[in-house]
Amino acid sequence: MFRFREFLQSEEGNTFLCEMQKKSESIISLNSDLGSETDGILNFVYKNCEIVLKEDDITTLDTDAIVNAANGKLDHKGGIAAAIVQKGGFEIQAESNKIMNQRRSELKTGEVVSTKAGKLKCKTIIHAVGPVWNNGRTNEIFHLSRAVQNCLAFLEEKSYTSIAIPAISTGIFGIPIEEGTKCTVKTIKNYLDTHTNSKIKHICLIDVRKEVIRAFKLHLEMVFGISKSRGTTSFNASLLGPQQKAAPMTPRTNVASGENAGIKIQLMIGSISNASVDVIVNSTNEHLQLDSGSISKFILNAAGPQIQAECNRKYPQGISTSKIAITEGYNLNCENVIHLALPPWDENSSDSILRNLTSMVDTCLGTASCLSAKSLAFPILGAGVLKYPIEKLPGTMYEAVKESPRKYDIKDVYFVVFPKDTEIVKKFKEYFQQMSADGSAVTSDDEDEEIEDNVSTGQHDDGVTLKFFAKYQNLDNAIETVKKEYLSLLTTEEIPFDTNLTESRVSYPQYYRVFIYSLVYLLLSSFSD
Hints:
Blueprint: H1 4-9, H2 11-24, E1 26-30, E2 42-46, E3 49-55, E4 65-70, H3 79-88, H4 91-103, E5 112-116, E6 124-129, H5 140-157, E7 162-165, H6 177-194, E8 202-207, H7 210-225, E9 258-260, E10 263-269, E11 279-284, H8 294-303, H9 305-314, E12 324-328, E13 336-341, H10 350-370, E14 375-379, H11 393-402, E15 412-417, H12 422-437, E16 453-459, E17 465-471, H13 475-492, E18 497-508, E19 512-524
Helix pairs in contact: 2-13, 5-6, 6-7, 10-11
C-alpha cells in the first residue's frame, strides 16, 4: 500500500512539500503521527528545513548535534548539562575539562564549543553558554539570540544538517520561558531567512516541560505562520500604525532612499511613536526618565506606563552616556525599543562626538539585528536640547548606516523627522534628494495591500494533517494548488483518489482569523510498479 503517510515520509514527499510551499505562497505544516523519525507536536517545512517541536528528552535523539545549555566553565552539574553527562558518560565532562584547561579562561556568554557525544545517539554536542537572567539589565535576550545563532552557524561549519535545541537559559539560568522561547524561535527564522544557501535540513525544538512546549508552539505558529507584513516602501498603509496621534506619518513627497548591503534607508515625516516597525530607537537621558525630552514623551505616551516601569525595574541606576537599554514596545507598533543617551554637543570635541554618534547608530543596527528585527526607525539623534548642528546630522546618520563595517540582517532603516521641525525636514530632504540624484532609487508612496494571515488544515484518515499558513486572499489558492498538484501526481502513478471537503471556523482574537478545511482522503489504494 502506498499511502499518504508513507509518501510524506519519503524523499519525494519532502521535495513535493517544498515545491508546494513555493507555488502556493504558504507554509505547509504537518501535524501528524509519521512514526518515530518525525513524530512531534508540531512539524512543518520552512525554507527547505524541517522544523519539529517535541516534548521529549534531548539525550534520546539521533540528530547530528544536540545543544547543551552550558555554563562558562563547562561544569556540567545541573539541568540539561547534568542529564547529558549522566546519559552520555563522564568522557563528555572530561573532554570539557580539557577544553577549559587549554583555554585558561571561561567561555563568554553566547559562545559555543563542541565535544564528542559519548554514549549518546547524536554525533556531537554543541555546548552553548546562555545568559543568566538579570531582569533584563545586561541585555540577556541579545546574548541568548547570539548563542542560538552561533549553534546554527557551528552546525553548518562542521557540515552537519540536523540539530536539537532546548529552551536555553529558561531553567536554572532563570530567563522567563515566554521571552526565552520567543527569542529562540525568532532567531531560527531569522537565520533561515538570511542564510539562503543553508544546508540545515532539520531543527528540533525539544523540552520535557509542558509549559515550555506550549510557549514554543505558540511562538512557532505566530513567528513562522502569522507574522504581519511590514511593507517595504515609504509611507505605506502597513507601515503606519492604526492610532494617529500628534503628527500622522503621511507622505509629504516622494523621498529618496539609499541601499547598503540590502539595507534600504528611507526618510519619513511624522512622529516616531506612530511608526510600525520591528524596533524603534528612543533618544533619552541617562536616568531613563521618559517624561523628559520631546521624543521620549511621545514614546512614553504612546507605549503606556509599562515602558517606564520596565526601565525602572531593569535599569534602576539608569545608563551611562553612549550606552543602550532595551525594553518591549507595549502599545507601540513595534516589538522593542532601544533607548540611548547621547552627550551634549561640544564644539571643542565635535569630531569625537560625531564619531560617537556613528558608533551608536551602528550599535542600534547590531542590537536590532540580534533581536531578529528586519526594520528599524531612528529619530533625528542629537537634535533639540543636545544642540547637535542640524547640517551635520543627515550625512552622519546616513553614512553610519551606509558605511557600516558589519553586515546586518536589517532590511529597512527609517529616519523619522517631526513635521514641525521644518529646518530639520528641509536639511534631510535636501540630503536624500541629493542621494537620489547620485543614483539611489526613489521610493513609492503606493499603499501596500494589508495582509491578513490565515491557517487552513487538511486531514487524512491515517493521521496526517496539513496546515496551511497563508495570506487570507491566497488561502483558497494555496489549498487548490496543493490539491491539484497532488492529484496530478497521483494520476501519474495511476492511484485512484477521492476527496471530501468540509469547513469549520475557529477564531483567534487579536492575532489572526483561522479557516479550517478538513481534506479527508477517503481512498489511497495500491498501485502497480
